[in-house]
Predict the structure.
Amino acid sequence: MKITFEGHSCFTITGAKGSVALIDPFISDNPQCKKEAADFHPDLLLVTHGHSDHLGDALAIARQADSVLAGPVDLLDNLTLGKISSIGFNIGGVIRFLEFTVIMTQAIHGSRLPDGKYAGLACGYIISDGQTTVYHAGDTALFGDMQTVISRYPLDFALLPIGGYYTMGPEDAVTAVHWLQPKTVIPMHYNTFPAISQDPELFKGAVEDRTEARCLILAPGESVERTVNP
Ligand code: NI
Ligand code: MN
């Protein structure tokens, strides 16, 4: 699996067999992302909630790339999808698509569409390509089910918001790492806007002092790859 940070909470996940999933495609209005929406051709597009910094360019990308759009059913039901193929599911549900298995997880956060429509519950995802498992927490506060539900899955990577203000900040994110026990944590949802300014190096220091995980700070456009020998 290859994980590319596109800035903010947007990640491209390329599975071991080459299938591509794109999460929270906030591209054209994302000051951290130098790419254009037209540069993305995912097989699967996942959105965690309706806020514009997550839904982003999802509809335009799904249309242009013929992607399958998956996300909370109450969100997808309020979008004008036209010919876009979609999978609306809900927290606790599992979908299988190409090489990916995707579990929708709880997130403690709001969700409404840019036009003000209600969009159901916000979520996170656990995504596996059969070899590597990554947890994208979405926008969320720290919550106890990270310890009791999500930590049941052996996580190679956890992508956690650290910006504070709209989500948990670095202190709570360190507790999340302690509970989730991923091999590697990658911080997200910080420094995009002044309200979510954080020093990721301080977070990295705290993670590596207080947990067994390694913290990997990716600059927008950077990737990490995990290969498993057969
Ligand atoms: Ni949000
Ligand atoms: Mn957000």
